[in-house]
Amino acid sequence: MPKTTKETINQIVWKACDTFRGTMDSSEYKDYVLTMLFVKYLSDFYREKLEQLREKYGDNEARIARSLKREKFVLDESCTFEYLYRHKEAPNIGEIINKALMRIEEDNRDKLEGIFRNVDFNSDTKLGKTKERNAILRHLLEDFADERLDLRPSKLEGGDVIGDAYEYLIAHFAGDAGKKGGEFFTPSGVSTLLAKLVEAKEGDRIYDPTCGSGSLLIKASKEVGSPNFAIYGQEKNGQTHALCKMNMFLHEINDADIVWGDTLRNPLHIEGDHLMKFDVVVANPPFSLDKWGAEELANDPYGRFTYGLPPKSKGDYAFVQHMLASLNGHGRMGVVLPHGVLFRGGSEGKIRKGILEDNLLDAVIGLPANLFFGTGIPACILIFKKGRKEKDVLFIDASREYNKEKNQNSIDDTHIAKILDVYRNRKEVEKYSHRATMEEIRENDYNLNIPRYVDTFEEEEPVDIEATKRRIAEIEKELAEVKKQMQGYLEELGL
Q: DSSP character for 79?
């Protein structure tokens, strides 16, 4: 039997979405579909381990049971996909699925606790009354029972097939969900660029304080080139937190420390009485978050806002300062932000000045407009480093180089390679990049608006006035002839 490919998984799971389309928004039904994909993965993983142990130990059920308890996941028979499928006609199938999910959590408490807390397969509100709900769930189980969807590890084409398929599906859900999509997914090109800019290395602790579904963390970890790294993340939205934890397991990152909570009001990665420190920090926080907690955090117990308290209606520099406070002495940090952080005045201007004078900002990279789900505004990437030797700031204007697509723009490997080459070699390229000294930045009153440093103005070709006049005269002559001809036609028609 052929191996299961990413394309096969995507095709089958995307078809399963048809069951929900028209009944609820994709930002909601994604939780049902992706949860069922995770249950199918757990079930097939368990089934293969069971087959291997029975081949090894024969009828010695006690030995098999002991070995299963040492595996990555423990799964009772009543929690397998096969069990659920056999009960697809049950009048309380939603309740049966919920019980199975609860048992999976209980039996794998240290890894999966709370992972299914925000999805209810027995919900009248989301799935309708009993008859309608049962029909939806039966169709969902039938779609996932497709014999081509074999997720046993030995049957997958490549080690990261299921993880890549999961990422692909999240990206498509984000595209369908419009503005809500931006809350749980960073476009692939942007996350790839950001991961390559911060260059995570072996042994690094990698952290994302607003981790969404985890794509930035996963991309950053792939740059390491070995399994020798540690992943940490925090996510405020419970449903998105669950997506992230599943995403980690499906990418075989089994020890990621992903926690649920509001990073600004209640940071949960703590060592003693201070914030945990990291080698690499990446984030795509919500743009200009309103009501981020300024009143509660005026006297922050962790001393994060050393450069000043950001305005209560814009949380961008609250996230930036949290991230800076989370960096160790040689840490690197990359964050996606709206352009307003580059030039807004008031308390943000004072914060920006302090960060610049402490020589923490390494680069400002302007991105094209319409890259992100749910917003057309252009964004930028800011790279910060602790213990920097350079005394300048590199500005890159990459806003004009992108692929124009139907719903939103994108950047590809060619665009990314150009940005990385200029950044790593700190090149100055006409109309593209510039290394600004601190003297220049001070002269601009710490305003970091990219056009102040990278001149992208293109001179228009001079207009030949005399030739233009002659062409206008020709057009007027042609127009007069057409009018004369039209008048003749009207007279012939007696009009």
A: G
Residue 260 near residue 184, CB atoms below 8 Å: no
**Structure tokens given for 287:** 């743009």
> Around Cβ 89, how many Cβ atoms within 10 Å?
9
CA–CA distance, 322 with 261 (Å, rounded to integer): 15
Cβ neighbors of 246 (< 8 A, separation 6 or more) are 34, 35, 38, 115, 166
Axis-axis angle for helices 188-198, 413-424 (nearest 10): 20
Instruction: Dump pLDDT digits (tens) for 94-150.
Output: 999 999 999 999 999 999 999 998 899 999 999 999 999 999 999 999 999 999 999
Q: What is the pLDDT of residue 422?
A: 98
DSSP code at position 253: -
What CA–CA distance (Å, rounded) separates 453 from 397?
Answer: 9
Contact 174, 185 (CB under 8 A): yes
Q: Give yes or no for a contact between 149 and 162, defined as CB atoms under 8 angstroms apart.
A: no
E strand map for 257-301: 257-260, 270-271, 274-275, 278-283
DSSP secondary structure letter of residue 377: S
Q: Which residues of the chain have pLDDT under 50?
A: none
Rounded distance, CA 494 to CA 479, Å?
Answer: 23
Q: Rounded to 10 degrees, what is the CA torsion of 388, 393, 396, 397?
A: 150
- Here the tokens at position 85 are 């499928």
* Tokens 């394309």, residue located: 7
At 482 the pLDDT is 81
Which residue's entry shows tokens 């027995």?
A: 122
pLDDT at 459: 55
